[in-house]
Amino acid sequence: MRKDHLLVSLFLSTILCSAEQANAQSKSTAIAAIRQEEIKKDLFTLADDHFRGREAGTPDELKAAMWLAEQARKAGLEPAGDDGTYFQFYPLIRERVGDRSTVKIGNRTFDLWKDVIIWEPCFATVDAPIVFVTNPDHVDAETIKGKVVALQFTEQGQSDPRKVIPWRYVSFVVRDWALKLANKGAKAILFVSDDRAEQAWNRAIPDRIRGTYRIEGRPSRQYLNGIPIVWVKKEALDLVRQPNQTFQANVYGEAFTYPSVNVVAKVKGTDAKLANEYVLFSAHTDHDGVREVEPGKDSILNGADDNATACAALLAIGRAFHKQPAKRSALFIWHGAEERGLLGSYYFAEHPTVPAQSLVAVLNADMIGMNAPDSAGLLGITPPHLNSADLANIALAENAKGPKFKLDTAWDKATHFEGFYFRSDHLPYVRKNIPAIFFTTLTHPLYHTPADEAATINIEKLTKMTKWMYATGFSVANAPERPKIVEGFKLEK
C-alpha cells in the first residue's frame, strides 16, 4: 500500500472511531435521563382508578390523553399533532345492539343481556321454525334454508389450544360456524351454552353490550349482516329442542360516533438534512375500562402492563431525547383505540401528521413489564415478520450490549397460535412497508383482568426494556443510512 493511501486510511479510521465514540458518549449521557423512579411514578399515575381503565370512545380515554400530552410538554417535547397541538382526533364509530331488541322462543320471552345475548348489531325481523342440529358440518342447505338453526356450543373442529379459555372458546365457535350456517340460508343462528360457554357468560355481556367499533375506511368487525346471532344459556336447551319449536326476534342496531385521539409529540433532530426524517416510538393509551367481569370484585381494568408500561416508557425516552437529541428527529405517538382493533395506529398510518416518506422506522412497545426478569420478546425479527433486517440487527445488537434479555422467539413465528404479531400498533405501519419491530414481555395470567395493576409490574425490568428501546431508536436516529425493507417482504396474512 502506498504511504499516502495508508495515511488517508488511518485518517478516515480515526474519524469513524471518533464519531462512534461521540455517539456512544451521547447515548450514555442521555440514557441517564431515563430514571426508574420517574417511570414508576408515571406508571402508577396512568394505571390508577382515576382514569377508570382508559376505555376508547369514553371521556376516560380523552382524560388520559390530556395527561400524557401535558407530561410530554413538561418533558420538553414539541407538539406534532394537528394544528400545532399534541392531538390528532378522529371519529370512532360504535355500532351496538339496541335495547329495544326482543327475542322469543315458543311462548317464552327472553330478557336482553340477562337471559339472551345478541352477538352483534343488525336490523332483522325473524319469525321462523327452529331446526336443531348436532353436526353443523353435515347439515344441508335445503334442511335449514329460511329457518333458525340452533346448536349447542361444541368443541367439534376446534384445534386451537386457546379454546381452554372460555371466552375464546365461545368466540372461536361463533366465528367458525355462524358464517357457514348463514351461507347455507339460515334465517338466524341460535347458540345454546355448554358448560364451558356458560363460564364466559358474565364476561360476554359487557363486551356485547358495547358492540363493535371501527373508523372510516376500515372494515366492520361483524361476522354477518342482517342475520342475527343469538346466544342463550344452557337451561334453555330443552326448550330449544322441542319439536316444532318457533323463534321470533326483532333486532335493532344503533350507531354512534365518539371522539378518540392520538397524542403526538416530537424532538427535533440536530442534522440539517436528517432532521426531516423520523424514528417513531409507539404505544397505546387505552385499555378496557369498567366492567363487571367478576361481580362483587374490582370492576376497573386498569391495564397497568397493557399498556401503561409502554406509555411511561415513551415519556422516559422522550426525556432522554430532549436531553440529547439525535441526528434524526424522534416522533412519539400514544395511539388511541388499540383495543378496538388498532384503530388509532391505522388512522395515523393513513393520515400522518408528518410526511409519510419521512418515517424511517417504528419501534412499538406493548406490555413490557411482566414475566421472568431476564426474558423478553422482540417481534419482527423472524420471517415472514422480519420486514427490515437492518432494524432487527440494531435492536439485537443493543440487547447484546445492555440488558441481555433472553429472547423468546417462538411468539414471532407464523405458526404460533396466539398470532401476537398481528395484535399491536406496529402492524398498520408494517402494511405501509415501514421498517418496524415490536418490544414486549408477552402475555401473562393477569392479561385483560382487573388484577393487571401497577403494583404487579417489575419496575426494574420495565426500566431495562425502556433503555433497550431507547438505545435502539437512538442508534437508528444516528445511523448514516435509514434501515431498508427486506426485498420481497410479505406477511402471511
UniProtKB/TrEMBL annotation:
Tell me where in this chain the Peptidase M28 domain is found: 262-470
The record's listing under InterPro entries reads: M28_fam, Peptidase_M28
Q: Which GO terms describe its molecular function?
A: metalloexopeptidase activity
Query: Which SUPFAM superfamilies does this one have?
Result: Zn-dependent exopeptidases
Answer yes or no on keyword Ubl conjugation: no
Q: Which Pfam families match?
A: Peptidase_M28
Q: Which residues form the signal peptide?
A: 1-24
Per the record, the domain of life is Bacteria
Q: Which UniProt keyword terms apply here? A: Signal
Q: Which GO terms describe its biological process?
A: proteolysis
What name goes with this protein? Peptidase M28
Query: Which species is the source of this protein?
Result: Chitinophaga silvisoli
